Amino acid sequence: MNRNKARRIATEIREHEENWDQESWWQGEGYEMPVARLLEHACGTTGCVAGWGAALEYPAASFEGAEKLVIPVPVGTWTANVRDVARYSLELTDEQASWLFSQYRAQDEVLWALENDNPDWTPEDYGDGCDDDRESWA
Predict the structure, then answer these.
(1) Considering the entire predicted model, what is its pTM?
(2) Which terminus of the chain faces fewer neighbouring Cβ atoms within 10 Å, N or C?
């Protein structure tokens, strides 16, 4: 896990809690918003860890719909899945990304993962064996 980028997201969540919602997916069909505007918090939208991870990685990009990020590249644009962009940006394993990006994660769980000193953490380290009614991270 890239701890510097992860801690930047944790700081965003701590300083602008009103802009974080683990169940929020940049609302709306055909929704387009320049990422730079999201980072200014001018639009009042909320996003999950994956959304903020992608936004912080590519501030010149725009969101298209709820799950796609349109990233300017030297020759046109590149459209990518927000989850994949955030996963690679944060250098997470698939297991870490599945657990961290889950809509069922509470703020304390998200911050634990983002601020963890062990970049190789696993969901089991949190003590979440997923024996509850939420979802399996496996």
Answers:
(1) 0.73
(2) C
